[in-house]
Design goal:
The chain has helices at about 15-25, 45-55, 80-90, 100-115, 130-135, 170-185, 195-210, 230-240, 250-255, 275-289; strands spanning about 1-5, 35-40, 55-60, 70-75, 95, 120, 140-145, 160-165, 190, 220-225, 245-250, 265-270. By secondary structure, the protein is an alpha/beta fold. A four-stranded parallel beta sheet has the order 1-12-10-11, with helices on both faces. It binds iron/sulfur cluster. Iron/sulfur cluster binds near residues 15, 101, 102, 195 and 197.
């Protein structure tokens, strides 16, 4: 049996930075205690537990009103401009760990709305990143996939129209949706795309799918949290583009319940919020068993 671990696995730089920042804040004496985190810092239960063991208290937005003092850390997915303003003007010390790429999308959206653009955003309406990007803003239409283009209104030719995306949408979804949008709105401008980390993982995955397309005894394992958009997009690519089995697992214990003996190849990829330690643990287990 061939066990193949793809090159682009483990944390992306945005996730690494967010974890490092939160850990430093929790270990430092310079930040007022208690230290709150606004939701799960990243989609990784082990990391959340580690941060909690350092004293972090994970809260949701509705609990902010009751806080009287301390530090609040925002997650790598970012928050809305209105929530950021509210936190900056509160009694809490704000530590913003939004990924730089998400911040860049915020800036692109704000700049173009100011210039009078109407925007179409490709992404998951209920995902934290998309809520952060769009909350309280007019003239943004959110679509999840190509099928939702039909629900978009007809706009006058004079409308300045821009296309932006959630950072974890796949490059091929962006390409197909943009192409379809152009038939409805020939003047639409692409203003943002997925992040480099997402792009590299998806491109590497597509290339190995192509290589193993004639061997259906291939199993693709995606390591990552089931709530992570990034994880689910990797699985979606496997199920849509390969004729093989694809499974999503969070840890080694989940792998132990799977019968892998019928496969000739096992190919491992991971979400940007899955640690290299877990990826290697699963890879080594497969090699040795
Ligand atoms: S997946 Fe991309 S946008 Fe999200 S944290 Fe990582 S680098 Fe940043």
């Amino acid at each position: 049996m061939n066990i193949i671990k793809l090159e682009n696995v483990g944390f992306c730089f945005g996730v690494t930075k967010s974890i490092e920042t939160a850990t430093n804040v929790l270990k430092s004496n310079h930040f007022p205690k208690p230290v709150y985190i606004l939701g799960y810092l990243i989609h990784n239960k082990l990391i959340s537990k580690e941060l909690e063991s350092l004293g972090a208290i994970i809260i949701n937005e509705s609990e902010i009103e009751n806080l009287k003092a301390g530090t609040i850390i925002t997650t790598a997915h970012g928050i809305s401009d209105s929530l950021k303003n509210k936190l900056m003007n509160s009694c809490l010390t704000l530590v913003d760990t939004t990924c730089a790429i998400v911040n860049k999308t915020h800036q692109i959206i704000n700049d173009h709305l100011k210039q009078g653009y109407t925007l179409i955003l490709l992404g998951e309406k209920n995902h934290k990143e998309v809520i952060g990007l769009t909350h309280g803003k007019n003239n943004i239409y959110i679509i999840k996939n190509i099928n939702e283009i039909t629900s978009l209104p007809q706009l006058s030719e004079k409308t300045k129209l821009g296309f932006v995306t959630q950072t974890t949408v796949t490059p091929y979804e962006i390409e197909t949706v943009l192409e379809a949008l152009k038939t409805k709105y020939p003047n639409i401008l692409q203003l943002s795309s997925c992040c480099e980390a997402t792009k590299k993982r998806q491109i590497e995955l597509l290339s190995i799918i192509e290589k193993y397309k004639n061997n259906q005894k291939t199993l693709y394992l995606v390591i990552g949290d089931k709530l992570s958009n990034n994880t689910n997009k990797l699985l979606k690519t496997i199920l849509e583009k390969s004729q093989c089995d694809g499974l999503l697992i969070e840890n080694l214990n989940e792998l132990k319940n799977i019968n892998t003996s019928k496969y000739q190849n096992i190919i491992i990829t991971s979400a940007t919020s899955a640690s290299i330690t877990i990826v290697n643990e699963i890879y080594n287990y497969l090699l040795n068993n």
